[in-house]
């Protein structure tokens, strides 16, 4: 369009010059050069017009393409907005899932801690049950022995009863004989009285022996109770000693590991820096762990509870 306007301006100038030249008398006829230039300019105009028509057609096609692309862009923008909404929804879902995951992980941690505590309790209960089973077995053995002794005493008692029944029959026979003969009655009475005294003595002696045996059994029961109490105390004491030995062994192992890690020169250097002797430095290093002390306290309290239970059982039975 700019070239067309330039050409049109040039044509107007040429026309104006031709008009001015026609008016002037010095040049009565237009020159051939001006005509040729006019023709060239007209040809250029035609070419520019053709190019303009072509460019207009291309512009229309480009406009159509631009409209199609704009529609496509609108569709894509709509899709992008939908996708952004979907992304926001998915982000919210992911955040919810993350929160659920955190909650589930915390629940798993708590459940694992409870499981560990329950397993520890089960182990301690199993150990307590094994100890109680051994004590129950020993008590059963003592009871079996006591029942055997009781059965023996019952047999002896039944034998004594049978003997007394037989002697009662003899007494009845003697009484019938006393009725028959009054003379022999005095002699038989004296003999019978002697026999009765001896039987009474024998029965009294048998009762005394039975009472002594009962006292012995009660003393044995008391001895058994004292034995159980002392045994439980000794068990507690030995367990505490073993625990202290285990702790000392652990400490010695840790100290050995520390000593193996630290050379003697480094220990001396640390003592010289702290202005302390090597023995004091070892005492400083030998610090009890708070967790171990807490565990020791808990175990000591459990042992106390166990002793109290045994004392209650011994008082009840």
From TrEMBL:
Highest taxon of the lineage: Eukaryota
Region (Disordered), start-end ranges: 1-33
Gene Ontology biological process terms from the UniProt entry: centriole-centriole cohesion
Family annotation (InterPro entries): CNTLN
GO cellular component assignments: centriole; centrosome
Comp. bias (Basic and acidic residues): 1-17
Protein name per Swiss-Prot or TrEMBL: CNTLN protein
Lineage: Eukaryota, Metazoa, Chordata, Craniata, Vertebrata
